[in-house]
Design brief:
7-stranded mixed β-sheet
Length: about 170
């Protein structure tokens, strides 16, 4: 007898989207302390960051020191190949303040950064004889955990085919 792992319990990041702080009209409290409602300026939308499917990993360990505690939010993912249009996106947002929206295969979204404390993308290049890719890291140090997007009256962009990292256009 074998026991099959229930893959429905594993939430997978299937989309990484971003916007600039100046594109956000407001961030308001949602239905609980763990949810926020993000409203973008009219005509602005979340923009996608393409990544290698299955490579995204989000962590937010708590760091406690004398003044208090903070959460070091880190999203790591692999940026594939040398596609010119994708490279332009990365160069446009590298080391600039951004808000990041992570969409999950379970129909939920979590965001990193806020208007007062935005996240930043830090690209690094990893090469070896077999593969060339760039390891990306988006970081934000915050006083609380990343919040879930309150979807009341909103829809969360998720790839139609469920393929993590798939193009959402």
């Amino acid at each position: 007898m074998s026991i099959l792992k229930n893959t429905n319990l594993n939430s997978i990041i299937c989309g990484i989207l971003y916007c600039f702080p100046e594109e956000v009209l407001s961030i308001a409290d949602g239905r609980s302390e763990y949810h926020k409602i993000i409203t973008l300026v009219t005509g602005k939308t979340w923009k996608q960051i393409y990544f290698t499917p299955g490579s995204a990993d989000f962590q937010e360990p708590q760091k406690i020191d004398d003044p208090g505690s903070v959460f070091e939010q880190k999203l790591k993912f692999v940026f594939p190949g040398e596609n010119e249009s994708n490279a332009i996106t990365i160069s446009e947002i590298s080391n600039r303040p951004i808000l990041v929206l992570l969409t999950y295969n379970i129909g939920r979204a979590k965001f990193i950064g806020d208007l007062d404390n935005p996240a930043r993308l830090l690209p690094t290049v990893q090469t070896n004889p077999k593969v060339t890719n760039r390891q990306m890291e988006i970081t934000c140090t915050a006083i609380s955990t990343a919040k879930w997007m309150d979807t009341t009256g909103q829809s969360i962009p998720i790839p139609d085919d469920g393929n993590p990292g798939a193009n959402m256009d």
